[in-house]
User: What shape does this take?
Amino acid sequence: MAATQPITALDLAPYNIKKIASGKVREIFELDSFTLLFVATDRISAYDVILTNGIPGKGELLTQLSAQWFSLITSKLPSLRNHLVGTDVPDVLKGTDVESALRGRSMQVRRYEIVPLESIVRGYITGSAWKEYQQHGTVHGTSVPAGLQESQRFEKALWTPSTKAEAGEHDENISPDRAAELVGPKVAKKIEEVSLAVYELARDYAAERGIIIADTKFEFGLIPETGEVVLVDEVLTPDSSRFWPKEKYEVGKGQESFDKQFLRDWLVREGLKGKEGVEMSGEVVAETGRRYREAFGRLFGG
Ligand code: ATP
Ligand code: MG
Assistant: This one.
């Protein structure tokens, strides 16, 4: 049933609402020329492949998590605007067949011109940054102190942007200097400052609640007339960030993912890593759902 497990493509064409994109997890519609509708489905991906069944409740949790973060960020950094208009089902869809499928998992947002950078902030050295560091002693081309261990916390979080690749292509890690060339020095500097400030407040908030946010990715819109940058997309979810359970953190090795570890371990164990068309077992669905609910509960209660 669509209402409980909408992982298949959602069609709002019968309501004259055009779909403009379908990502691994979210579907994006155009409500009018100023407003987009983001719908987070229950789809989940691991090792770059989308599983054929979903995690009931995941889309709603991710939507509510972003909304909670937006509100916390605004309370701490009131000068930073974000794109969220609200999480209500749009009026034109109220009372329709799709209303229940959209409830809780949709976000109406103001539409902006997007700055073509993935604004990544890294608080801990892991993933592609750890690989580069082992090979060259740098992170996104910038030198960092020698002798770091895997998963070690950086003394100061690093802004490590990447390009925003077209669908199917891979993002490329770039240096802050290269980012300034791509989007202009003023915009790049502003995005760097704001990204670090948001990451630091979220990292500290989450750490007090038992979650390490190792790194995260933001996106920004731009108001061309004023040069102001606006925080857009989803923020600080396990889909856009690495969440680690604090109680299991140990420097010198790779860390467990708070949300996806159970699924990843199962895929590896069953020889299904990277394979298309895989259906998760009931246990994997249940355990993974439990992790997402726990992450939300630790951060914002409930
Ligand atoms: P993936 O599933 O790998 O994340 P994706 O990034 O193409 O793929 P989504 O994350 O679902 O898929 O797509 C969201 C898109 O919407 C991004 O291209 C993002 O830049 C864009 N976007 C986010 N917020 C806004 C906004 N306020 N105005 C315009 N575009 C936005
Ligand atoms: Mg995306």
